[in-house]
Design goal:
aminotransferase, binds glutamic acid, 14 strands, binds 4'-deoxy-4'-aminopyridoxal-5'-phosphate, transferase, Aminotransferase, pyridoxal phosphate binding, pyridoxal phosphate, Aspartate Aminotransferase, domain 2, alpha/beta
Length: about 400
């Protein structure tokens, strides 16, 4: 008999992590899998950050930290928000957590009551819907179109709002589409929200620095949105620090205090050594990580060119992050090598089995027609992977 709670029984497994685990399993069986499923930079953490961590260990940083993070780390975050985003926060408005994923889980648990609706423009980052559900919230998917670069319009937002709408969660640059909302596009959404003062926004800016066009804009920069926006960020992507597990929020202080309270009962402060190292990461000029962004940009050009040579792939031009999200629905209903492809999950599995390339089905991101390909891999791996996909489909 299943003794587990309804809460866990109703939760999906993270599709990105599941695909990464499957790729690892197949590799252990001796299969030559190219992993383009996980959104994880393939660079080393920069030396100046590693050195700060080593120094912290030698200085005996080994105790519990304040639940919401070391004060000097929070000061570094405040300076970063000012320097990069023109946002002014005070110490009580900042909470450091064990990855932006925990920041998001904190927000859901402090903001949502059962039945509260959270608007998620699709495609959205894989964990949003399940984090919302875990707090008894109801994800409301808004389908966007590749022709509008996968962005939600003001009209679509307006149409999705109901008396139960509590929040909107989006990422810009977006995982998985790579789309970046411009200031004007955000203003149009904010204008709709003017009429609905009780709706709050989560602006997930974890890919902020991986932006090929420049021009990152934060929703909280609008004066009328500042008190209603929770800005989420972290070091996993920009500084190649996924395993270090540090994320943070800048939020209205009553929300930040509530995040602090829940974190104090669930995990306490984030890892002390990682926090010390992140101070150095955030104090550094963003130009210190430009070499990674430049390389991602080259890879984007490469993968777009190669995908353009395969029949039936329709792709937007991502402006940030390190993913492409091609529409592959022209393959639905086809049988190749005896396998029938009826949906994006079939397509992703077909590629895994026949081309030994791991991707993630778009269904995990709320889109049934696309797959996500991460290009956080070497150019050689990208070339080989797309060659294999092309061969498998021909
Ligand atoms: N938001 C987005 C959009 C992401 O892609 C990720 C991926 N890791 C996260 C949040 C969580 O990041 P982390 O927990 O590693 O800080
Ligand atoms: N955010 C990354 C991704 O989308 C890492 C995996 C995860 O945290 O789910 O692949």
């Amino acid at each position: 008999m299943n003794q587990l709670s309804d809460r866990i029984n109703n939760l999906s497994t993270s599709a990105t992590l599941a695909m990464a685990a499957k790729a690892r399993e197949l590799r252990a069986e001796g299969k030559d899998i190219i992993g383009l499923s996980l959104g994880e930079p393939d660079f080393n953490t920069p030396d100046f950050i590693k050195d700060a961590a080593i120094e912290a260990i030698n200085q005996n940083y080994n105790s519990y930290t304040p639940v919401d993070g070391y004060v000097d780390l929070k000061e570094a975050i405040i300076n970063k928000f000012k320097r990069d985003n023109n946002l002014s926060y005070t110490l009580p408005q900042i909470v450091v957590s064990t990855g932006a994923k925990q920041s998001l889980a904190n927000i859901a648990s402090v903001m949502l009551n059962a039945g509260d609706e959270v608007i998620l423009p699709c495609p959205y980052w894989v964990s949003y819907s399940d984090i919302v559900k875990l707090s008894d919230g109801v994800p409301v998917e808004v389908q966007t179109s590749i022709d509008n670069d996968f962005k939600m319009t003001a009209e679509q937002l307006e149409a999705a709002i109901t008396p139960k709408t509590k929040m909107i969660w989006y990422s810009s640059p977006c995982n998985p589409s790579g789309s970046v909302y411009s200031k004007e596009e955000l203003r149009a959404l904010a204008d709709v929200l003017k009429k609905h003062p009780n709706i709050y926004v989560v602006s997930d800016e974890i890919y902020e620095h991986i932006n090929f066009k420049g021009g990152h804009f934060s929703m909280a920069e609008f004066d009328d949105m500042y008190d209603r926006t929770i800005t989420v960020n972290g070091v996993s992507k920009a500084f190649a620090m996924t395993g270090w597990r540090i994320g943070y929020v800048g939020a209205p202080d009553w929300i930040a205090r509530a995040c602090n309270k829940i974190q104090g009962q669930v995990t306490s402060g984030a890892n002390c050594i990682a926090q010390r190292a992140v101070i150095k990461a955030l104090e550094a000029d963003p130009s210190s990580i430009k070499y990674m962004v430049d390389e991602f940009k080259e890879r984007r050009q490469l993968i777009l060119k190669l995908l353009g040579e395969i029949e039936g792939f329709k792709t937007n031009e991502p402006e940030g992050a390190f993913y492409v999200f091609p529409n592959i629905s022209s393959y639905f209903g086809k049988t190749i090598k005896g396998k029938t492809i009826n949906n994006a999950t079939d397509f992703s599995l077909f590629i895994l089995e026949e081309a030994l390339v791991a991707t993630v089905t778009g269904e995990a991101f709320g889109n049934k027609d696309c797959i996500r390909i991460s290009y956080a891999a070497s150019q050689d791996e990208i070339i080989e992977a797309i060659k294999r996909i092309k061969t498998a489909l021909s």
